[in-house]
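User: New here, please read:
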Amino acid sequence: MGYAIGLDIGTTTVSAVLTDEDNGRVVFTKTTENDAGLPGKFPEEHIQDADRIVSIVCRTVDELKVSWTPIVSIGIDGQMHGILYLDDEGKAISPLFTWQDGRGNLPFWEGETYSEYLTRMTGHQVSSGYGLVTHFWNLKNGYVPENASKIATIFDYAGMVLTGRKVPLTHTSGGASLGFFDLSGDKWDREALKAAGIGEEILPEMTDSYTVLGYDRDHIPVSVAVGDNQASFLGSVSDTERMLLINMGTGGQISCVTRVPTGEGLESRPLGEGKRIAVGASLCGGRSYALLEKFLESCIAITGQKPNETLYGTMNLLAGCYDPDRSSLRVDTRFCGSRKEPGVKGSIIGITPDHFDAAHLIGAFLYGMAEELKTMYDGMLAAGVAPAVQAVGSGNAIRKNPTLKKAFEKVFGLPVRIPESPEEAACGAALVGLVAAGRKKNMGEAQRLIRYL
């Protein structure tokens, strides 16, 4: 018997799980605040200290190795789309430009933003925050370090530091998130790169396999890192052919295996070993609920009072009174726009004297979050994706809020199961590590270890 470490490098936290390789049970979990945020030179810029993040990862691994033995593998996943620049020695020479970077939405050419210009020139739908949109902005504004040799994701960089690699190797799940990716050949689209004026030499090597990246100083195999969306899918869904994943965190995502091209506003992303997942992503997701919580706090402040704690517990209790079949109150939760329509705004409609109160508004927000993802799922079905027979819910927003789970079940018409471990992405990374190290024959065998509440 041995243990697999799974590491999830998120925007606000770095989480680790220790999984029993025989039965899949998570025996230890640790979450550390990602306090690596840095001030940007521009209001739209969102950056973090890459070496600070990796120091948290390395310290966490060292702590686990001291307390648990034997460690048989290490797997990593992380926040996608973001990039950092490396020198010839594989050292970070820039901050991490995260997926939240908004400079791609700034004006660039004849009324077009940077991302709109690149979409038109390359034929690839790309949004602000995609790594190669960020790189394009940096190129055009003299923001690329002079001695930059390669770009890498934060999770690839963490793997490099753990194994001593000097050249990044990215999984297709991470590479595709940067933009201009050719799904038919699991490589970047050279013609698109040429149209964008981006040299291919700065891009990392890429693999579609769950393979060993290298070995740490204690000779433990470290797997090639995967994107957090794919890791969450792999760590939540025990049957990839019959299940749909709904993730509700800072953003919101819906994912399922696909063999057909996706529709407009949706993505097809590499899962690994030749498989694809169709993905729809909302930009606000759980932030919609946080926005409402702040609004309610401001209402209380008018009375001169201040809550002693967050209002989420009370909100969750009140939300149960909302019935979409009996109330006309509806909330469009696209408060941060959408990838398809960056300028679209959220709205509240159907207000009547009978239902315009805090409880009904809270419930309408939750159903609005579910409806936004359901619209994306309908687009997948229209494109030919096979219907799911069961849904899996991941992320704290759906895990801690029974009314949100109920909203998804009603809106999607599917039962929703919740994984036993709350760190679904880290669990997925751990499973990838077991497969890469040869401890499991394939991902299907590894995923059968997943447990549900």
Notes: The first strand starts at residue 3 and ends at 9.
